[in-house]
Target: Chitin-binding type-2 domain-containing protein
Amino acid sequence: MPGVLNRAATTDILYPTVPACDGTRPVICTGCRTMKICVGLPEPNNPTQLCRTETPFCDSETGACSTLPDTSHAECSKVEPPNVSPLFYCTGKGFYPDPYSCSSYYYCEGESVPGDRYQCPPGYKYNSKAKLCHRVPIHCKPELCEELSCEQTAATFKPYPLDSKYYYYCQYDESDPTPRILMLACDDGASFDQNLSRCVFRCPREGLFAKSSNRNKYFQCYRANRKFVYAELSCPIPAQVFDDVKKVCVTESV
Model:
């Protein structure tokens, strides 16, 4: 089903009895949105902190923060229904990081359709380079998770800070003061160059390489003035696709 971003509620509700550190786990939940770091004893010296914005709810079973309230506790059911963000609209086929959360991602079947949202388990972050959810050890500092910026005066493409393959564009609507963030992806082997405001293919070596966003095209890499350069070429027949194994244009069999 299409993915929807759930934003955090604005109030926190504590459990009737605040749990104490007992030496069995390094972190425990003290509320729907708060956790206690069990650094040692005596108990009053253990600090508490709020869950981060992108994972606002504490999961009492794991002690990690999550995007979903812990429904096993009645107190969490009192949290006001979260606001809903605009649907994620796809700009191409493949995986895309969630521009609003580091712990979820989308898969797109094509352009201009809502994406399918996938949520990482509590305590995990999405790694767009590996296309996997990676566990974040509790004793480590939280992974970098920068908030994407949209400024009314800067209607330009901007690099996604966690992976140079991706970049984004802020789409404004006069009827809605909140811009929609459109995530875009460069071809496999390419990265976004902010100075040029476009994707640049990085030649790994001399030869021919498929263009992942358009199977009728390919990159020709060669040396010029002691450095690699490339040319983007098309197959001679529009119905053909470039075979990256055979390194030739072929007609796909139905």
Q: What stands out?
A: Residues 88-186 form one domain.
